[in-house]
Every structure is written in structure tokens, then in C-alpha cells.
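quick one before i forget lol
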Amino acid sequence: MTRTVLITGGAGYVGSHCCKAFANAGWNVVTLDNLSRGWREAVRWGPLIECDIRNEERVRSTLNIYKPDLVAHFAALAYVGESVADPARYYVNNTAGTLALLEAMRATGCRHLLFSSTCASYGIPRTLPIDETHPQSPINPYGWSKMIIERMLEDYGRAYGIASVSLRYFNAAGCDPDGEIGEHHEPETHAVPLAIEAARNPGRPFTVFGTDFPTPDGSAIRDYVHVSDLARAHLLAGEMLLDRAGAHVINLGTGVGTSVLELIEAVKRAAGNEPVIRRGPRRAGDPPVLVASYAKAQRELGWTPQHSQIDFIIETALNWRDRRPQI
């Protein structure tokens, strides 16, 4: 029988790429999104239910109608700075919203949840590369909102039998290689699209936050993982989850760090001209290096990153921006 996945936040960046991955693997895909930060045009695989996850009655009705084998949960606010300025919004939307979703699942007998978590739950790294045993100590409300959800999933697994996998992303980047969907945030805060825009539009310089980190070139190092690799990991984790009980956590990264200045050089190679940059001070709480260990993903999912070379990431993001600057 064909399986069905309900994807909350499926009109957003990572969620829409995961919709495509599940659809291409033969799943029926249903997207649930309030479109506050997603895009109607990104919903191309199956129906869109325009709904907020906090509307427990409507979510319950959707679960009863479509009877999904799996819920893949991406719906969340994800701006670190905004979470510091307005933490209530993050705890209400992300944490309480997920609680409403879990209660709707419990009421309708849906027992499998794939959760979009984050490396922000680790906080400042104590050891590198970061694996799943690294202590979690978030330094902002966004990270806390996700970490609390992970604890909720452990408790719901033990008490109510809802199995889950929490996938802790590092830096999602790049766009669909086919050019069907891409990255579009308002405001845009991700380094790759900002650096590309600075190469295409001299009036929008790219700010390098910190050039005095204890790294080889003085700029911060991050682990960029292509969004299509993330999507494939979600598909593999979803298939695994159907046969597993309990609450599981898995990192998604590449084990390779790219500095901000190396990222700028990669954009220069792809775009044919150098991004206009300006140098700014470090941002509070920015660690010098964030690099993942993906050994557990390789061991349990059979997943390795296949499209996450920085030049390919930039190439796909640049193609998206040049061909379709608006989603």
C-alpha cells in the first residue's frame, strides 16, 4: 500500500524539499502550513491544508481525513535574534504548537513523528566534531524551544507510544538541483543567499561577523549540508521510524567545516565576481567552529552527504537566485 506523510511546514525551505523527496519515493504527501513564513507556490506535491499547528481541532480533523502513516514536523519559527527579542512567540509557536500537534496525534492514533530539530540545542561546543552525546545547553530561546520539544517526545514515547526521530541539522544550504524549489526567507538571514546577493547586487553588501576568531583565517567555521541531502535523510529516517519504537536523535551534517571567508571565495568562483563585503564585530554567542559528526546517521540510516560540497551548494543556490529570484 502507498504510505502517506503529513508534512507540517511543508511550504517552507527544508519542508518543501522534503515534500519532493517523499513524493519521488512514492509516498502520498499532504502539506499543512499556515503560510506565515512559507510559500503557497512551494507546495507542488499533494494538497495544502492551510492551518496553524496550534489549531488542535483542525489538525485532528486533518489526521482523521488523511490517516498518515507518518507526521514530518517542520512548522516552526527559526530566527535566533527574533527569539531573543520575543521569546514568548517562540515558546508559544514552536513548543506549545508541537504540544498541540502531539495531542492531536494522540487523539487520532497517529504514532510516528519525524521532528526537525537543530544543532542550536547544543549551544557552545565543548568538543569537536559534535556527536549526539554532546551535552545540550542552548544559548537562545530558539534552541531551548527545540530542546524542550525533544524532551516532550521522550515523554510521549514512554507514556503514549508515539515513536519519534529528532534530526538535529547543522547549516542547511543550497537549493533543489532541478530548480523547482529553493530558499526564500523574509527577512533573509542565511549566509549562502546573502553572500550570493552581495555578488549580484553591490548595493547589498555581505557582513562578515567577526574576523578575529581562533580559526585559520579568523572567520567562523560552519558545517553546511545541502538541503537535498537533508531531505533524503528525512525520507530514510521516516522509513526507519515505521519499524521502531522510542525517541531517537540523529545529527545531520557533513563533518567538514567551511569558514565564512572560504564561503565568499566559493561564491566568487561561481558568480564570476567577488561579493561586496563589510566586516563587523562578532555576534554574541557565536562559537568559532560548529562541525557535526554524522557517524550515527551513517550507521542507523545508511546516510552520507552526497551533494554537500560547498561549490555544489553555491551552484544550486546561485542557479535558483538567477533563474527565479522570487519564489
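fyi The chain has two domains: 4-172+225-252, 191-223+255-323.
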